[in-house]
Specification:
Elements lengths: L4 E4 L4 E8 L2 E4 L9 E2 L1 E4 L5 E3 L1 H5 L8 E3 L10 E4 L2 E4 H20 L5 E6 L5 H13 L3 E7 H10 L6 E8 L4 E8 L3 E10 L4 H20 L7 H17 L5 E12 L2 E10 H13 L2 H11 L8 E5 L6 H11 L12 H16 L13 E3 L6 E5 L3 E6 L7 E7 L9 E7 L9 E8 L12 E7 L5 E7 L5 E5 L8 H45 L5 H18 L9 H17 L1 H12 L1
Parallel strand pairs: 1-10, 10-11, 12-17, 14-18
Antiparallel strand pairs: 1-2, 2-3, 2-4, 5-6, 5-7, 8-9, 12-13, 13-14, 15-16, 19-20, 19-22, 21-24, 22-23, 24-25, 25-26
Bound molecules: adenosine monophosphate.
The site of adenosine monophosphate has 18 residues, from helix 5 and helix 6.
Length: about 600
Amino acid sequence: MSKAIGIDLGTTNSCVAVVEGGVTTIIPTPEGERTTPSVVAFTKEGERLIGSRARRQAAVNAGRTISSVKRHMGTDWTCDIDGDRYNAQTISAMILRKLRSDAESYLGETVTDAVITVPAYFNDVQRQATRDAGRIAGLNVLRIINEPTSAALAYGLDNGAHQKIMVYDLGGGTFDVSIIEIGDNVIEVLATAGDNHLGGDDFDARVTEWIAGECKRLHRADPRTDPAALQRVREAAEQAKKELSALESTTINLPFLMMSGGQPLHLELTLTRAKFNELTRDLVDRTAGPVQSALNDAGLAASELGRVLLVGGSTRIPAVQAKVKALTGIQPSQNINPDECVAQGAAIQANTLSAASTTTALTGPGTGILLLDVTPMSLAIETVGGVATRLVDRNATLPVHYSQVFSTAAPYQSSVDINVLQGERPMARDNRSIGKFSLRGIRRAPAGVPQIEVTFDIDTNGILTVSARDLDTGKAQSITITANDRMSDAEIEQARRDAEQYAAQDEVRREAIELIREASALLSQADRALGVAGKQLDKSEKKQVKQDADALRKALGKGRADKMTEADVATLRSAKETLAASSAHVLQLYEQMNQK
Ligand code: AMP
């Protein structure tokens, strides 16, 4: 049986883990990194870069580099690259496909089953979009689980004691806080709160602004006016921030940052932890609100918490740790790497689910742990007067099955429209409409007589099905929530096939790019050698080299790897080899002349 993996599909970084022989292991990238930047780029040569390679070239290829696509999940966001449209699911699928393929190389076997994590704040549409991204990447998504729940799983196993804990997750782009109850083989999320737009990127932005301001003050040159310089400042800012988690002071060194008054500007600054804390104090303070509302929702005082877990790379910041301690009175636990524990928990859950689906009893972390999750927001339907009538409360434990009987508002009404809402506000218009459908064929009757039973079913993945049934006629209608931006099954299947086809094409393209580089270099060498040493060749030899060079020039065409078929690549390879053979002599003569 192939192994099931756990994936933390993060806003800034993603991480993949697996349970092997009872031990949870983080799967490294081929470059040896333990997390993969959630960045996708399309080079001008038609190559797709994912992860570190994409992140490294972001500054020089900003228009064709996509970061933080997770923020767009479940929206109608698209991007256009060379006339092809991509939505958030297809871009996320590219990241998932890379994680999957890294896992396959590491494990030496095909991987299809996966558990993927999402922020606790994701609504149904966003969860569904994540599941769809998994399918496009060719994954069988066993379950979508909340990130803090996943972290608690990673820890919960080490800590068998019954207790209520807080998971404080400050990543690159999002902040989530959850209250979780750990019992006998049960981990239940009691409450969640957070801020979808607060994370390490905001800390980087503060340091970036400070560096740019200092540069302007000291050298009268502002790196914010030069995109390449600004990108270097951003990278230095993140680096300094990370160093200040361990050191009291750090040096920011940016030689040749930009031109200033006709001279290259070398910037060197010292940033102390105290100054960094001052620059970012309000960001750290902003985490207090969600901490309090999660505690309130769970009906707990901080003193009732058994533990506080820190999750997300930004919880390495000492001021953040101090804030958590001040807010809760508890020294937070960090014995699992905060960047990795979400993926670890997902791997544990994946192991449990795949073990449960086979008859062989497996042992290992997570076996037998039943994972209970909660709805992130309340669910309602619109009733007469535009009122949002709530059927499922926020933080209800999944799975949910709830029915309520409604009636008609007008006499002889033969159909009802069901508008499904998500949110906490009393009026329908202030909540998000996540799906609509109609139940027709209701028997003619005065207002208030027909009995329409509306049922909400939410499965363990948080995927919602709403049905309406006329209790008189038995007529029923239902929807599984599909917002306008949700992809249809056919679209997902098409996107999956495209992605697979692309993976095959990618090999050809990579080879073509390499070949184009080599062929262009050979052509210019041969042209130069002919010009300088051509006189020493006999006429027919010279003619042959020229002919072969022309043939290679023709095979190169416009040098666009993305426009080349496999046959074009083969023609180019053979033209390059022919010229390499016929020009060897003149190249040698040219070299000898150069050495003299
Ligand atoms: P995550 O999304 O959990 O991978 O968190 C990524 C964020 O954590 C990024 O903003 C990183 O800059 C930040 N981060 C990683 N390591 C550190 C560190 N040692 N100190 C401060 N922030 C860090």
